[in-house]
Design brief:
The protein is mainly α and about 170 residues long. Helices cover about 70% and strands about 0% of the residues. It has 8 helices and no strands. The chain starts with 18 loop residues before the first helix and ends with a helix.
């Protein structure tokens, strides 16, 4: 039996493979992510150079959009924690909600600039700007999230309370 408990969404793929199959799968996955991340970095650099040369802000916003996607993907897949912030679990804990919000904001700002909504649809432009402001005013760290470290007094207390609520005599003694 396998039990996994987390407060955040988590992918947990289970496979029955031999050691050679696991190694081949890891190599193929590594090449796949290398191609994905390399292609995105190339697009970021290319669009940033276009911004520097043409002075068109849409290229800078597209670079920011791609950059936030890259960071969000790396945080979600665990590569960011593995490669960049392995000693900071708090960064990994907050990176997904913060980067998802940043990715959404960057996408909206890029779309506003690229589509030039202020010319053709000024009302829609104002509505999207309002949405951006609302996104920025509701950061994920304002949410009431509790982080309970497994094995801590708080985790033990919560477990005993939950057991007591189920009618377990162990939790009733507290």
């Amino acid at each position: 039996m396998i039990r996994v408990e987390t407060s955040d969404p988590m992918l947990l793929p289970l496979y029955l493979l031999t050691r050679d199959q696991v190694h081949a799968s890891e190599v193929a996955e590594g090449y796949g992510y290398g191609l994905l991340y390399g292609g995105i970095v190339i697009l970021i650099a290319y669009n940033f150079m276009l911004f520097l040369g043409l002075k068109s802000w849409r290229y800078l916003f597209y670079s920011a959009y791609l950059g936030t996607f890259l960071l969000m993907n790396m945080a979600y897949t665990g590569h960011g924690y593995q490669w960049f912030w392995p000693r900071w679990p708090t960064v990994q804990y907050w990176s997904n909600p913060v980067l998802i919000l940043s990715f959404g904001l960057a996408g909206l700002i890029f779309a506003l600039r690229f589509l030039e909504l202020y010319r053709s649809f000024p009302r829609l432009h104002r509505a999207v700007l309002l949405l951006c402001v609302l996104f920025a005013r509701c950061p994920p760290w304002r949410a009431k999230r509790r982080r309970v470290v497994p094995g801590s007094r708080e985790a033990t207390r919560d477990t005993r309370r939950a057991e007591g609520a189920k009618g377990d005599p162990k939790g009733a003694s507290e």
